[in-house]
C-alpha cells in the first residue's frame, strides 16, 4: 500500500523536526521518501519480523528501524545518518492490516 502525506515527528540533536513523508508498505517491504533542504531522501528495507523493519539510505549513509504494533497506525524507530542519530514517529493516515 502507498500512504501519501504521512505525518512525521523526528527527534534528534536539533530537537523535534516535524515533516511529511510517503510510505510504501507491505508485509515484507517498506520504503520511506521525503524531501529535506538537501533534496530527496529514500530509505528502503525489509521486515526482519512481522511489523519490524530495517531500512537503509546509502546516499546519506543512513540506517534506520521502524516498528509497528498490530492494530496500530503508528511506526516508530531509530535513525542514523552519518554521525547524526535520532528517533522518529510516523503516523499513517489510516489503519491497515498487512497480514
Beta content comes to over 45%
Which fold does the CATH topology refer to?
A: Porin
Number of strands: 8
Helix content: under 10%
Outline? globular
- The total domain count is 1
The helix/strand order is: EEEEEEEE
Residue stretches low in confidence (pLDDT < 50, at least 5 long) are none
The span between the termini is 12 Å
SSE topology sketch:
Blueprint: E1 2-12, E2 15-25, E3 29-36, E4 39-49, E5 52-57, E6 62-67, E7 74-81, E8 84-91
List keywords for this structure.
mainly beta; 8 strands; about 0% helix; eight-stranded antiparallel beta barrel; about 100 residues; Porin; globular
Question: What this model shows, in words?
Answer:
By secondary structure, this protein is mostly beta strands. It has one domain: Porin. It contains no helices and eight strands. It has strands at 2-12, 15-25, 29-36, 39-49, 52-57, 62-67, 74-81, 84-91. Strands 1-2-3-4-5-6-7-8 form an eight-stranded antiparallel beta barrel. The chain is globular, with a radius of gyration of 13 Å. The mean pLDDT is 93.
Short description:
This protein is an all-beta fold and 99 residues long.
Amino acid at each position: 500500500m502507498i500512504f501519501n502525506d504521512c505525518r512525521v515527528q523526528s527527534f534528534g540533536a536539533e530537537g523535534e523536526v516535524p515533516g511529511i513523508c510517503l510510505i510504501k508498505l507491505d508485509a515484507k517491504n517498506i520504503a520511506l521518501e521525503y524531501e529535506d533542504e538537501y533534496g530527496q531522501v529514500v530509505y528502503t528495507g525489509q521486515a526482519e519480523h512481522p511489523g519490524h523493519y530495517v531500512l537503509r539510505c546509502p546516499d546519506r549513509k543512513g540506517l534506520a528501524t521502524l516498528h509497528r504494533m498490530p492494530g496500530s497506525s503508528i511506526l516508530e524507530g531509530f535513525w542514523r545518518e552519518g554521525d547524526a542519530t535520532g528517533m522518529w514517529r510516523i503516523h499513517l493516515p489510516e489503519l491497515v492490516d498487512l497480514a
